[in-house]
Amino acid sequence: MISMDVITTHLNADFDALASMVAAKKYYPDAVLVFPGSQEKSVRDFISASLLMPEFKKAKDVNMQDIKRLILVDVRSPDRIGKFSEILDNKDLAIHIYDHHPYSAGDVKGQQEIIRTVGATTTIFTEMLQRDKIPFSPAEATVFMLGIYEETGSLIFPSTTVEDIMAAAFLLKKGANLNVVSSFITRELGPEEIDLLNDLIHFSRDYVIHDLRIKIAKASRETYIGDIAFLAHKIRDMEDVDAIFLLVSMEDKVQVIARSHIPEVDVAEILLAFGGGGHPNAASATVKNMSIEETEEELIGVLKDKIHPTRTARDIMTSPVKTISSSSTIATAEKTMTRYGVNVLPVLRHVTYYGLISREIVEKALHHGFGKSKVMEFCSTDESTVTSSTPVTGIESLMIEQNQRFMPVVENRQIIGAITRTDLLRSLYETLLRKDRIISHERLTEKPSIGKNLLPLLKTKFPPEVLRILRLAGEIAGEFGFSAYLVGGSVRDLIRGEANLDIDIVVEGDGIEFAQALAKKLDARVKSHKRFGTAVVITGFLKFDVATARTEYYESPAALPRVEVSSVKKDLYRRDFTINTMAVRLNPEKFGQLIDFFGGQRDIKEKTIRILHNLSFIEDPTRAFRAIRFSERFGFKISKHTLNLIRTAARINLFDKLSGARMYDELMLIFLETEPVKAVRRMAELNLLKFIHPRLAVTKALEETFRSIQETFAWFKLQFIEEEVNRGHLFLMALIQELTPQEMDEALKRLNVPAGAGREMLEGIRDAQNVLAWLKNTSEKEIYHILRPLSIQTILFTMAKAGNREQKKAVSHYLTLLRNIKPELSGKDLQEMGLAPGPLYKKILAAVLDARLERKIRSRNDEIRFVKEKFGK
Q1: pLDDT tens digits, one per residue of 521-545
Q2: DSSP 448
Q3: Given its phi and psi angles, is residue 130 left (phi above 0), alpha (psi -120 to 50 degrees) or beta?
Q4: Distance (Å, rounded) from C-alpha 629 to C-alpha 151?
Q5: In Å, how far are 240, 379, 466, 536, 548 from 512, measured between CA atoms?
Q6: Which residues neighbour 700 within 8 Å (Cβ) at sequence distance 6 or greater?
Q7: Chain centroid offset of residue 399 CA
Q8: From CA 515, how far away is CA 520, in angstroms rounded?
Q9: What is the pLDDT of residues 5-33, one digit of tens each?
Q10: CA angle 222, 226, 227 (to 5 degrees)
């Protein structure tokens, strides 16, 4: 029996399939290239026109039982590989798979699999060839470029990734001919295709399913026509629909081509029912033993079953909602509205929904002296309500027609959420943006649009194990009936195009109960804090925070906040700046969806640090230091209004009420995460330094010291990676060094610096001044004894303060060489030499050390000889 390796792909092979087969041949040079069935017309034309293409065989010319290794490229669905599916169960068959399609139930499993979420399988092979330095010709580079360009729509489809663009750039560098690529990717329709296009448009019908527009276009031809997928793109460009399905009856089968613009219509999942497959936004299937009418009828049934509904009240509502009892007073209602920053409160009678009361009504009632009257006497009881399943379109009609600003979401007479005009406008705006993206073919970049699903970015920036934990978190939240969100800096940096594994999860529900369930699944540890509804989950490689969604209010300026359970919207509103207020849904049905209530994406795009509300610095003055830190760390500007609010907070001396420990923590983060010179200069401009000590100022000498510390610290970390030094303390020493000893002590006490650390800093400033006076024309022995008693922190501060090259060189020489010099002899060695134990040992070893520092001895034998000469009997 002949043993054979075969490289194959999917039926109706496109350029990505062709290019992947050619690339795979580089790794399996003895393998036979075999198409499982037909190819798209453009692929057939290309193969016919090319003189340098390798030989391709047809499946019917290969004895399937001779195949010992099957290499599948751009496919892993058994229904799309023709006759090759017949041998998948052969025990001796080795299967290798290279693919970029999402996983589907029933996919082929391989002994070797390389599956990645990129725009084209050819991209995977191109990266491999580049990594392994495997040569290929310009003609082959052109084939690979065709694969990437066709599959990504010339790099403009939403599925395009950074990897696709980089691969295309590499291929262009390797000689890919874009003229050839253009001639096969961009082409005019022939007479036969124009005729088919006219029939498809004429015999098309629009369906509205769950408020989504679906177009089904049909046509029949006696003979086979090739690239009808190209026609799907043409019709998609002409029609404003959410998804399109082309049904073309040819010979004895119906070819189905599907394209979708929206996540609610996953065409790969829909065509799976017909034995097809592909991507959520592009898929195909070949249907046998059914007429085109039967196929259409079956398709409509699958669409109704598989299409996810559009947005309902549950998708856009805020939950839980702050309410008030019908027996509460109007004065209490006013305090509650002010405390929580709301303008409408749902009124409950016992535990059931009763009506609404607005700030306008409350203020009028107070004006007329009804502060002690009950809320139920003034609330509105005839306002409309909706249920959680009410479509957003219906809510829109109610709120506009009845001029209702606040829509309660009520089920079984219980209020479960609320929708404001802002919620509704945001939902409508997201729909509008989605349609704009369809029309203009905008592509997802590292700064995604509002409401966009961030799953591609999550896959790119997060390790697979972290992504698995986030998916599991969403599944567990769903089981509890909770909603879980990824929030904070990791979302901000994801949109900035950077990876940040500082994972924070917020849960609309019991955060501790959720964390315990998640930890059990992960076999992890949990540390919970019941008072705050928070927990820390600790796995073998990751530690992340879980919190119950909460709101907070401040009983006085600069005080610590009082915290209460709330919704994710309120939870995000309590944060510091708009760029930190975004969240990503983790529940399975909407995993990866971005939530941006407060314009965080806009401010990241505009590189702006913006406060959420005018009282933000009054509630928490540390946010002023944080604004400076983020501004300098990211290179963002602080908005004009935010700067004015910081100056106001400084003018009314709010920072005097701020605890020293919180100010110290923020200062350390500034020194760790930014270029300290710029940050301290900005603090001086905003008049913040005076709250550490009135005499602090930014001088030219201070700026020079800061820069010198940066250089010194960078040099030290490069030389001694394992040694830890508190970088923040070095800069704090520099900041206060020009003060008197008493003033330095006052500044450190104002910051509530830990006693031991404060003492080390004060001693370090003093010792550095003394040491620099001594480090002049000193020998190695003198350098050693001057610096040996000092901490590394003090030595580095001394090096940064050194005014001349010789002083810096002396400190550098000590750190890199002298501090490691020590005698090889020990007390045991001295005892074996006949010397009696006692204080003499210390004197002997000190003399040996000095002799080494003076280069009088260099070896152990030298040390023994030295001891015998100086201290022998």
Answers
A1: 999 999 988 877 899 999 988 999 9
A2: P
A3: alpha
A4: 43
A5: 47, 37, 20, 9, 7
A6: none
A7: 36
A8: 9
A9: 999 999 888 899 999 999 999 999 999 99
A10: 135
